Amino acid sequence: MAYDPNLNLLKRSVKEWCLNYQIAIILAICLVLILPNGLQWPLFYLGSILFLTVKIADVVNNLKSRDKIVPNGKCVFITGCDTGFGHMLAKELDKEGFEVFAGCLFPEGNGAKELQNYSSHSIHIIPLDVTSEDSVFKAYQYVANRIKDKGLWAVVNNAGINDGGEVLWTEMGILEKIFEVNALGVIRITKTFLPLLCQSKGRLVTVASIAGRLAIAALGAYSASKHAVIGFCDSLRQEMYPFGVEVVTVEPLGYRTDMVRNGVTSLQRTWESALAEVKALFPEDYFETRLRPGSKAFDKYFVSDNLQEVINCLKEAVMAKNPKCSYRPGKILGQIYFHVANLLPQSLTDFFLLKH
Cα torsion at 326, 327, 330, 334 (round to 10°)? Predict the structure, then answer.
């Protein structure tokens, strides 16, 4: 039996949406009609101007160039440098003139060795497991002992994983591991290194995800961990204003890193290891007719091969004198989808996410 989202969800969504907006339109018209004739059109024009101003200001903020600091050997600590964004960023910041401390889960692995060979004097390879208090503290000691009077300019929380599937069939141990790395790992690193950033009036940059703003089926634990990270950073940003520390999130939509490449494999592995009584709740061909096509569609329309877009955002977050609070790089189609989804009623958004 092929899986298909319940069409009742669409019917209910459209019905609720129409009802809500009918009521809203009627109330808005009544509000305008009870105003004196001389205020009706000025109110309309004022509302239009304010709406356009907000939208245009956001575009200008995204497009304008930002003054940058001069690296001059400033120190930056990056987690998750074995592969992906962390690996690329370590090289880019080294070229810019930063002294880079690259945290690697596998300090003897190919990624760490490549970084070491890339620049033997300004990239320090540090063994780092963000889930271990002892490992994080040793990394802190290493950095603190070597930065001396230069101070620590920036910490980039990049380490992250996604190794689960739908909550119903994913083992609790896997869910806990995702939170340990993606959420508690960020908090653990931040808590440990934050005093150094307060001393330097530097910045904390955290790689989150658009899934931390818009949850997606089969990414429950990952989305929840990224929601937690974004909430943590949004709160911390307010706390750090008095200390002069910038707190920035970079929330990519979808890029072809190892995590994305292995997405279907991860889904299939957790599905195959699920208990028989759990699998029995689903149609027999659920994985092949629902999850695999959905993953391929997401990959086709929303995943970009241009990882440099994310690196450029990370570099700006580290180097700009006045960085934005958050960056959301990604394909235009994904950007549009995200903004439209935020405008729709939740049940209607759920339907389109399930359907497509």
Answer: 30
